[in-house]
Fold these 4 entries.
Entry 1:
Amino acid sequence: MSFKYSAFIENTQEVREWVKNLGYKNYGNPFQTTDDSLLFTTIDGKYVPYNVTIRDNSWIDCRGNLELFKAITAVRDDENIKQWFICDTDVNLGYSDIDGNFLHSKIYKGDIFFWDIHIEHAGVLDGDFHKATKEELIMHFGKKQCPQCDDACFYHCTENGHVYPPKCVTKND
């Protein structure tokens, strides 16, 4: 199993269940965990609740954005389930429901879609698409890379009423 990105977020029961269901293994020391600890994931499939100050940009900061965390931590090389994809062309999708009815839909060029059980077992999946990159996931889930410090922090976009800090939160100038 090969995960592509490392990330961290607030350590909650929901987050721990999510990473366990994806196949991450606990690498934690219970004495390091506190009520305000963060949960870190690694590309080698480990997760650890840890109370530490972040000093570099090795991990993607998903604090306060559970959907971004779920999208980032699901990205892996060996399968597609529970991951997001971007259509490079219109994509035709066809599958049968539990009653045997054939269902057909179209996902349009530029749209993002979630690879779920229906797509996993689709009888028709015709078109060009690619697995969403880290940058595409950050853009889709409402965060952008900070232009002031070259990827060392993230800030909320100004679209859809979100407000971002006027200055980078990690760069002091």
Entry 2:
Amino acid sequence: MIELEEVIATTEVNRKNISFTKEALMSCAEQINSRGSPHLIAHDRTKLVGWCYRSRVEQDEAGYWKLMAQIYVPETEEEFAQIRENYAFFMEQRFESQTESFREYPKRFSDPVPLLTSDMACVYLCRPNITFDIFPWVQDGVDRDGLVGFNDFKLIGDGFIQEGEYLLVPHRFFRKSFSISNLLNRDFLGSVSKLARETKESIKLKVDPDFVGIADSLKEFVELDYWWGPKFDQDLLNIDLGVTRHVTREGTIERIQGLLMTEFFIYSREGKRVVQIEELSESRVKTSFFTDCPYAHRYIHTVVDETTGAIEHVDGSYRFYSEEKWNERISSTIDKAGRADNRAKLFRLDAPISVENWYSLIHTFYKDNTLIAEYFGLEITP
């Protein structure tokens, strides 16, 4: 085992404007010392890399208290098997504790009875198409891309819509690795919520057909994965036409997570400036929707009026590739590449939007990808 030591949290105000008390840090240390804690890549609960086995609270020279953790990183398969066993037990205990008060909910439904599942913030009922059973208006309002208008609703938490005892849930494609155990992309959904409040035009989002949240289970859960987008308010018409490819550098968190590059394609067509952005990744994902397509690339499409410079439309989706099509895609550029095997549109806005809001939307959509800011000539503060 490789042994590391890290600062987990401090009493100093962090970039999310949160400050922990000394007592809270000591409580966390007690929990880690009693049962351990998983060490993950970018808070992705499908990417276990180590185990926090010991912790302490100490004071630094500036007078702040800090939570220190000692972490084991396995080097052999035998060591990693032990870490996985610890993790499975940890997650089982957390699930039992989190769902204890909600075990009667599945009994309210006829066969097939839904299952209980959860992320760190909410408990869910899981069954194929349960969303349409509880929210019948959703099925009536879904468009051909599977999107639902959100302007008439107040979004709570990570982008949920509450109706009575239940929560309408954004699609699992908004979660890292498409896993229900991971939190939703709250930075992006926060941008969507902001736009929904500011515009009366149609902003639409993909909802999950198979998961419904239990409103009383919803809790605030903070992941200290600070993602800050520098302000961008330039004229998109001033960006050069053509294809640009930005490649990840070895050793960066993006490269470790499998991101290879991001391509930008700007072109003119019938008085419109079209902006296409596609992220290319070698990470394989599992999804019940496209089982023969293990590669998923985030994609943005934007239309700008060349006369006024106004952004008229923006949508985001995943492009899914089979092994064969993926090899063809990474060997080509975005302007010459063939069609993906499948796609899933996640959001669409057909309304004027400021450049600043547009950039906030795409920057948070591509969370953990610094190549977006790099292309636009911006610097992300570490």
Entry 3:
Amino acid sequence: MEEQEKQSQLVGNFSEMVSVTNLFLSEFEKVFGNTEIKKSLPTVEGVYMYAIIMHLGKIYSKSSNEHFSLDKFKNLFPETIERVNKMYDDHKDIIGKVKSNRDKLFAHTDKDFLKLGFSQAHIDKLRSLYQTDFSRIKAVGKEQERYTPVDLGGDLAEIKQMLQEADKLWWDCIMLIDFENKQNVKTS
């Protein structure tokens, strides 16, 4: 497969993942805390949350199994290496939390299931509902937190920033693809 074709496939598939994740995020914001919607669809926040976790996990994966992740830009667009590394570094806490939760939910690697705890925001919510101390189930760090809709709501600003950066990256990379040297295809 030619370099331009690989680059085009990466940019096209990556842009679609970012676009779908932005759509899920927008819809999550509409249903988050909306008691009317939750009356008829009580799990709607969780459904969107899991979809967002899955897609963010694919975007920010460093696995060789994810063929259209952010990490793949470094191979096909060497001029993006520093930029991509900075994106990973700037958002390492959220990426770690997403990865932990994605692995737990979708990759069935629950070996650390009992190590995942809850954020302070979720513990405060539990405490107000049940008037009991839940401090022993508090996560040690952000990467050890289980995602809940409340936590996702609290991380929205940074997740939006992550997606804006990813969106800009693929758009900038379109300009780096050398379509001029691609063989002309005869059309009838």
Entry 4:
Amino acid sequence: MANEDARTFQRLLGKAEVVRLALRELDDEDPVYPRIREALEAALDDPGCPLKELSHTELDRLETILQELDRESNTVQDEALQVSLHRLRCETSWDPKLLPASQALLNGVGMTYLLTRNALGVIALAWQVQTHPLDIILTAGKFIRSFN
């Protein structure tokens, strides 16, 4: 029983960390914050979500990649997260953008749409860190950047 409790705690901690990283640029006082957080949690709880428990090493790597992306332009950040979503959808047939909580936000315009889409992209990037640790694709251009 103690082992099962530890795994449940680790899974919840990993989920909370992915949500924290996905919302890192959004002020928690922003009125859309709770709705985006809800959409992220719903995506991570979805039975079809291919993202499994992240190890501490994987969480650290995800945070490092996001910190590097934060130093890039908004265009580069956006592309990296969208390429991650595309790769996730192509390889698993699971798309967090199609979940009801996500769709409600993605039907909006402007910042709500962009913030939601990019937050979901962090889930996809976490999936890449976990399933393709030596081949993380961040650009759709001629030169593909990988973190080896």
